[in-house]
Amino acid sequence: QVTLKESGPGMLQPSKTLSLTCSFSGFSLSTSGMVVSWIRQPSGKSLEWLAAIDWDGDKYYNPSLKSRLTVSKDTSNTQVFLKITSVDIADTATYYCARRRTTMGITGGFDYFDYWGQGVMVTVSS
Amino acid sequence: DIQMTQSPTSLAASVGESVTITCLASEDIYGSLVWYQQKPGKSPQLLIYGATILEDGIPSRFSGSGSDTQYSLKINSLQPEDFASYYCQNGLSTPYTFGAGTKLELK
């Protein structure tokens, strides 16, 4: 049974660094092909993909936020972390981690998020 | 980045009706289109990937179609539990991008 769960500070002040943890079970990030992503959603708005890390330790970032993001994983491959520096009010959102899967089709690979955590709400406020 | 334009933004329908939501990609995504359902206070749930492939456990009243840049999600015979928000996602390449969402409401 695959589960993911996010944890974070709940609230922090502008200009601080946000640190989030995704703890998961039911799969290992050391397995070839496994990828865990971070996605966020401001209240009442759509979803924004932030970053990902794969089984090989390769990291991927949304170019729009790349300078502020750092994704990493622990050596046991059961946790993934995300740091966002210099937060401001616009970073207020629910943050999700999700497992990415890839299925090969005739025209190429289809990437999708098959399991999501429950999300952690983060408020940036002074 | 690939832009995903989803329509309509909101939609009112009755139980038993059929509805269609569309998603237009700014470039050819070669069928790598994903649909999610999200209920208030919950995380998104995967419905369809590869434009047409129904995720295990998803009712067959959900179906996806499309190719190149144009894609659709059809829900037949709406059930009370289907009233939720729906999002499309570019699954071709990073940065993965999502449509703005469609809120399906009970008429």
How would you sum up this structure, described in words?
By secondary structure, chain A is mostly beta strands. Chain A is built from no helices and 11 strands. Chain A has strands at 3-7, 11-12, 18-25, 35-41, 48-54, 59-61, 69-73, 79-84, 93-105, 108-116, 120-124. Chain B has strands spanning 4-7, 10-13, 19-25, 33-38, 45-49, 53-54, 62-67, 70-75, 85-90, 102-106. In chain B, the strands form 2 sheets. Chain B has a 6-stranded mixed beta sheet, with no helix packed on it. In chain B, strands 1-3-8-7 form a 4-stranded antiparallel beta sheet, with no helix packed on it. Chain B is globular, with a radius of gyration of 13 Å. The mean pLDDT of chain B is 97. The A-B interface holds A 37, 46-49, 52, 60, 62-64, 96, 98, 103, 105-114, 116-119 and B 1, 30-32, 34, 36, 42-46, 49-51, 53, 55, 87, 89, 91-92, 94-101.
Summarize the structure.
Chain A is mainly beta and 126 residues long. Chain A has strands spanning 3-7, 11-12, 18-25, 35-41, 48-54, 59-61, 69-73, 79-84, 93-105, 108-116, 120-124. In chain A, a hairpin with a 2-residue loop joins strand 9 (93-105) and strand 10.
Topology diagram in text:
The complex is a heterodimer of chains A (126) and B (107).
Chain A: E1 3-7, E2 11-12, E3 18-25, E4 35-41, E5 48-54, E6 59-61, E7 69-73, E8 79-84, E9 93-105, E10 108-116, E11 120-124
Parallel strand pairs in A: 2-11
Antiparallel strand pairs in A: 1-3, 3-8, 4-5, 4-9, 5-6, 7-8, 9-10, 9-11
Chain B: E1 4-7, E2 10-13, E3 19-25, E4 33-38, E5 45-49, E6 53-54, E7 62-67, E8 70-75, E9 85-90, E10 102-106
Parallel strand pairs in B: 2-10
Antiparallel strand pairs in B: 1-3, 3-8, 4-5, 4-9, 5-6, 7-8, 9-10
